[in-house]
């Protein structure tokens, strides 16, 4: 079941034009929160993928235990080692809020880990992002975090969760999805129980589901700015991305996905703010579009890297494939460089 | 409005010859002051660009919080982690002065940040550089610094400031440019109010402006060494560099510019000191020439990297394009390698 042309046409509208009309930042300022003692590759993959799909600026907010390694992977990332285990909550709150004020999207989870202080800072960041009505992507141990307390994300329709098979199974149980719900309907049921949060269920094909017919979706706090009917218009939809991916499930591909979805949400924010485009697409539609676009490009990059590297493919091989994949999915003219024609 | 041939001819005179006559250092010893907790890519981009356009040695003077990452980006940089938050001012003064004595130019700002101790050391470095009559480039948070206290740079005609759109707007207000001054004349007005400091206003096209008709330009301390009439000969000029750049405004391109302008100023210093050339070009002309040359090469590198990478271009992609861009702007024979003919 390919993605309908109408969805792709909408998606193309939130791709920033490459005509010199935008200044630095108007193609997206992305933040990734993650990176601690054990994990440094994951936040790097998310943050660099955001740049390689086309964001202007990509920040990593991490523990000092991870910062030097992440910085060393790429001078193009801006790495903020502010999540100190021995910092006060108030100090970090101020630093986080100042950082978030400069970002269009927050990707929570890649390399977050489960250390208490990291989980605690991640919760703080999510609540600050909600109070700023920012788009957020939740992956990996940020899914574990919201699984412990669904209210953290419930009813927040600017969020996309991106669980893999294991994470999806756990999340389904945590939100109380009945075992009898057929496999194909489960992602929608999870979205419904999360109050309309967009669910990107990764798998052999990726399912992007939204269901706002549940109770929480009409909560006041779920209001999508500039669209007062958000809580009233009920949406129930599932889209399947069956674009061919690679045949190797090396670790890290999910981080690429969170970065590409995040970058597209950042574009959505720039679109919503009027940096480009005609603002005909309602804000409530943007998370679905970003999830579809990120999935298509990431799966394509996975296939291309696998075609070259085969069994020995690693996630780093996917980074140079993001540009060509974007060209393959949306057309070379949207990618704008020789890479987009490869 | 292309750069006049006469300006390009002058520019070519300050390019060090590649005929074996120079020894190590006589094609420029560059220093970049910047790099602290949050920023490590910016000083790297500035320092490596100085080498890639053709300086002999490139130093980074930074905080220990940034040094390991910057060192890891390239073994060709010499990284001095002397800007310790807990050092005494006197100790750092001695270390800085010793370092500056070996450099031809100081680039202040890339990755400097706004932490108090970094701002304080940057002020110290600028005053030491002035007392040594060194060429300086001020970018990023060094512009924020001089914006707080214009006297730091006022009347210092060996300085080039390189504000982007946002920084230029702020600087214009800080020096008191009237709102009625037409857009095209504002960079000159800023130069005038800074007492003849060269302004490189980055934008869709780059404007390089100098105006020494203001009062401060005749201050004693503005004297350009070897040119006693500097305070008397009034100059008012604006040049526009409309060389095609890339269509993506990813963060970091400004750092490349500060590095290329800085390297050309270092060449200017070697030229002034008699390492090569005929010394017909007055020292007061060198900042304008370096700003024009740096702008032309940087914009070309931006265009070339964008042509290849399209939407996913990052600043790191521009580094290997600096050599070919130099060849494109000045001719392959000036670049000297196969890269210059690409």
TrEMBL record, chains A, B:
Q: Which UniProt keywords apply?
A: ATP-binding, Cytoplasm, Lyase, NAD, NADP, Nucleotide-binding, Phosphoprotein
The positions annotated for binding ATP are 202-206, 245-254
One GO BP annotation of this record: metabolite repair
Localization of this protein: Cytoplasm
**YjeF C-terminal domain sequence ranges:** 7-329
Q: Which GO terms describe its molecular function?
A: ATP binding; ATP-dependent NAD(P)H-hydrate dehydratase activity
What InterPro entries does its record include?
Answer: CARKD, Ribokinase-like
SUPFAM superfamilies attached to this UniProt entry: Ribokinase-like
Q: Which reaction does it catalyse?
A: (6S)-NADHX + ATP = ADP + phosphate + NADH + H(+); (6S)-NADPHX + ATP = ADP + phosphate + NADPH + H(+)
- Give the enzyme's EC designation: 4.2.1.93
Q: Where does (6S)-NADPHX bind?
A: 111, 164-170, 255
Its main subcellular localisation, reduced to a broad class, is cytoplasm
Query: According to its UniProt entry, what is the function of this protein?
Result: Catalyzes the dehydration of the S-form of NAD(P)HX at the expense of ATP, which is converted to ADP. Together with NAD(P)HX epimerase, which catalyzes the epimerization of the S- and R-forms, the enzyme allows the repair of both epimers of NAD(P)HX, a damaged form of NAD(P)H that is a result of enzymatic or heat-dependent hydration.
Concerning its family, UniProt says: Belongs to the NnrD/CARKD family.
Name the PANTHER family on file.
Answer: ATP-DEPENDENT (S)-NAD(P)H-HYDRATE DEHYDRATASE, ATP-DEPENDENT (S)-NAD(P)H-HYDRATE DEHYDRATASE FAMILY MEMBER
Task: Read off the NCBIfam families from this record.
Answer: yjeF_cterm (TIGR00196)
Q: What is this protein called?
A: ATP-dependent (S)-NAD(P)H-hydrate dehydratase
Organism for this UniProt entry = Serpula lacrymans var. lacrymans (strain S7.3)
